[in-house]
Design brief:
The protein is α/β, with parallel strands linked by helices and 183 residues long. The protein folds into two domains: 120 residues, P-loop containing nucleotide triphosphate hydrolases (Rossmann fold), CATH 3.40.50; 55 residues, 2-Layer Sandwich (Alpha-Beta Plaits). It has six helices and ten strands, in the order E-H-E-H-E-E-H-E-E-H-E-E-E-H-E-H. Strand 5 and strand 6 form a beta hairpin. The longest helix has 18 residues. The protein is elongated.
Length: 183
């Protein structure tokens, strides 16, 4: 069975993408809805879903310094272009996860660890499954998270023999929008 996908997008926020998508879901009656506006998901406000499960999204990494191995040479602090390392401590907000510090640490005291960047939710609505996600504040990789939402949407469609996925895209023309449109 071929699953059809319809994505509602616009270059600007506040134009009614979510309202249109929810209206289409109401008309379709049996559909999978994927809210791919991961930075401001709000389809759940309109469809009143019941959460089935929640999954962590680890889309980025953060540096961690092993104090037992650190020789306090200062190489990491000098090379960090984000000023995330001060007094041999990593500022978790400033660290962008680029890995330069890990690469150049002569003592191999720095490791890059995955961090939770957001959450993916699969829920039930009266029209069918709703898949959406929330990216934490100041996190990146929204395009990657959109791809995860779409993957879960497709899995729900295949599992429940749904032939239509409605995708509520994010505003703009950037990576999350492109990820909303591409398979």
């Amino acid at each position: 069975m071929t699953v059809k996908q319809i994505t509602v997008i616009s270059g600007k926020g506040g134009t009614g993408k979510t309202t249109i998508t929810a209206s289409f879901a109401s008309l379709a009656e049996r559909v999978v809805v994927a809210d791919c506006d991961v930075e401001a998901a709000n389809m759940h406000l309109l469809l009143s879903p019941q959460e089935v499960y929640k999954e962590e999204f680890k889309g980025s990494k953060i540096a961690s310094i092993d104090e037992g191995k650190c020789i306090k040479c200062g190489v990491c602090e000098k090379l960090c272009r984000f000023d995330a390392i001060k007094a041999f401590q990593v500022d978790q907000i400033l660290c962008e996860g680029c890995g330069v510090c890990e690469c150049y640490c002569p003592a191999k005291a720095i490791t890059m660890n995955e961090k939770i960047s957001g959450y993916v939710y699969v829920s039930k609505t009266r029209y069918g499954p709703l898949v959406y996600a929330n990216l934490k504040a100041a996190e990146s990789n929204s395009g990657k998270l959109v791809s995860v939402v779409r993957l879960h949407g497709r899995q729900e469609a295949e599992k429940g023999a749904y032939d239509l996925i409605l995708i509520d895209g994010s505003p703009g023309i950037g990576c999350p929008v492109i990820a909303s449109l591409t398979g």
